[in-house]
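TASK: fixed-backbone design
INPUT:
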């Protein structure tokens, strides 16, 4: 059975050219979005996209269906606006910034629940790094930002937390014991992630009067 999420996803794939990116925009997982597109194509009895490497390119039929779907959703938006106006219900746009991992793993169920509770509010996602999100918030370019390390004093709502673990080769000398002393660990060669991992790793060491002695590579995500 087709519903509004199918049509919104269809347009997101047409606009983004990629199912993974489109899934993030509508608050779905990549596998859920792929299944939804497959259901839509099965219901219509014809392919709407061709898959070329990592791109999803609309077929001629896909373009025509997308054109009609865009008009349909625009009309629905006008109807909903009329209903909100008559009922005095609030509506609007919420600009949300975060980094790709959060959009693909953490936010989909949160956004689905938000849309159920506030169907009149459109969520516009924007991918950015931790530091970029802080700049966007300071400039009032976005309304909400999901970051790893919010500054002290900022109004926040925790979405989750991670444990810190040492990832070592099985043959590494420090892997033989049940625990590792921090002084031993910070002396090892590090592959250091940017954003919150870098901040926390540095602060944990600094709090103990230590420092990361050998950062071999810095990576994102």
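OUTPUT:
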């Amino acid at each position: 059975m087709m519903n509004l999420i199918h049509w919104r996803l269809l347009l997101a794939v047409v606009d983004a050219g990629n199912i993974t990116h489109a899934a993030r925009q509508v608050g779905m997982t990549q596998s859920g979005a792929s299944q939804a597109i497959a259901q839509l194509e099965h219901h219509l009895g014809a392919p709407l996209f061709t898959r070329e490497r990592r791109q999803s390119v609309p077929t001629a039929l896909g373009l025509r269906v997308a054109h009609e779907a865009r008009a349909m959703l625009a009309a629905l938006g006008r109807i909903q606006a009329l209903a909100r106006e008559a009922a005095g219900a609030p509506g609007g746009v919420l600009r949300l910034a975060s980094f790709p991992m959060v959009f693909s793993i953490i936010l989909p169920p949160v956004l689905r629940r938000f849309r159920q509770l506030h169907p009149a509010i459109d969520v516009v996602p924007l991918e950015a790094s931790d530091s970029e999100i802080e700049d966007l918030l300071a400039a009032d370019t976005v309304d909400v930002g999901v970051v790893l390390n919010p500054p002290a004093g900022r109004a926040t709502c925790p979405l989750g937390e991670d444990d810190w673990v040492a990832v070592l080769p099985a043959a590494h000398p420090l892997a033989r014991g049940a625990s590792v002393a921090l002084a031993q660990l910070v002396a090892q060669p590090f592959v250091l992630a940017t954003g919150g991992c870098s901040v926390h790793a540095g602060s944990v060491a600094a709090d103990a009067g230590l420092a990361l002695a050998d950062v071999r590579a810095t990576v994102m995500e």
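COMMENT: The radius of gyration is 23 Å.
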